[in-house]
Amino acid sequence: MTARGQFAILEAQPARGVSYRKPAVLVPGYTGSKENFLPVLEPLAAAGRTVVAIDLRGQYQSPDAPDRAGYSPAALAADVLAIADAIRESADRVHLVGHSLGGLIAREAVLRHAAAFESLTLLGSGPGAIGGERAAALRRLVAALDPADGSVPDDRRALAALVRQQWHDEHEPQARADGVDEHIIAFLKERTLRTCPVHFIVLARYLLDCPDRTGELAGVVAAGLPAQVVYGEDDDAWPPAEQHEMAARLGAERACIPGAAHSPAIDAPVTTASILTNFWNAAERRQPTVHSCGRLRRAAQDGPPGASADSADKVGRAGSDSSTGMAVTDKH
Asked: In 73-137, which ranges are E strands?
């Protein structure tokens, strides 16, 4: 429960000992949910901290907003701040990670109240509006669901029927053609049909029109907030070069993950978890690390690292994950 209501979460805690490090909040992308972070929850929690992956308002298992205003970037950022406030308990700040659209919402939250956060990670997220084929797909979706551009009241039952039809006509056949396992298709169907169709409309328009606020965020980073930009080398949402340039504009650390595409937490969970854990630990010590494409090393003046990142990269490429214990709770 938060000051802005209830939200669905997955909470991971160390199976042994206590959470002695500062907690983290993970914000998913447009068609995603908290489950997109499942592969990294175990290794992140094993490092000694509570990690909470959320569903945004109207996304999968979180309650719907009463109207379009409840899905505005400002409203969703306020939700993230309320969730962070509810989980930090004795910690004064939390680490914040936003994937794809979730990175844009995380940025809004930081710009509203940076003091709530120990660090910010933009994961597969860009500086502004999305382009390419993903933008074309969003335009087709908006044309189908919202041809009047919000000038008529939203009929959620009719919109849900349109989403259901699109799932059966397009997305499910494509998933089968791509060889996706049947149990995963069943989950994707449930998640799609349980997400509020107004959520899809409002946030599709935001992704198409989102302003570039990198300059504003760079001011927050310059004032002392540790930030990093992490992306897969094959990201097909915001091009890797665009994310690289954004990191430079922010004065933020950068990590490019070999073999990963738009969802590094799924494509390379061990590497992603290693990058996040090293960055979070350094942020808590206020000792920045230096990242290059798929490699981590301590800045030269700080001396050699305590562990090799090369081995983590090899494990990430192989697709395996950590086997340490973790307690995960699904909460609403």
From this structure: 94-99, 117-123
pTM, two decimal places: 0.86
Give the whole-angstrom CA distance, residue 49 versus residue 86: 15
φ, ψ for residue 256, nearest 5 deg: -105, 125
CB atoms within 10 A of CB 190: 12
Place of tokens 């107004």: 198
- Ranges in the chain annotated CATH 3.40.50.1820: 9-128+211-331
DSSP H helices, 223-291, are 240-250, 264-267, 269-285
Architecture of the domain whose range is 9-128+211-331 = 3-Layer(aba) Sandwich (3.40)
**155 φ/ψ angles, rounded to the nearest 5 degrees:** -95, 95
Terminal C-alpha separation, the chain: 8
Supply 106's token pair: 């995380």
What does the pLDDT look like over 111-166, one tens digit per residue?
999 999 999 999 999 999 999 999 999 999 999 999 999 999 999 999 999 999 99
Distance CA 230, CA 244 (A): 9
Q: In what order do the strands lie in the sheet with 117-123?
A: 253-257, 227-232, 117-123, 94-99, 24-27, 51-54, 9-14, 326-331
Q: For 235-258, what is the mean pLDDT?
A: 98
* Cα diameter, the chain: 62
Q: What sign has the CA pseudo-torsion 136, 139, 140, 141?
A: positive
SS3 of residue 250 by DSSP: helix
At 276, which amino acid appears? L
E strands present in the chain: 9-14, 24-27, 51-54, 94-99, 117-123, 227-232, 253-257, 289-292, 295-298, 326-331
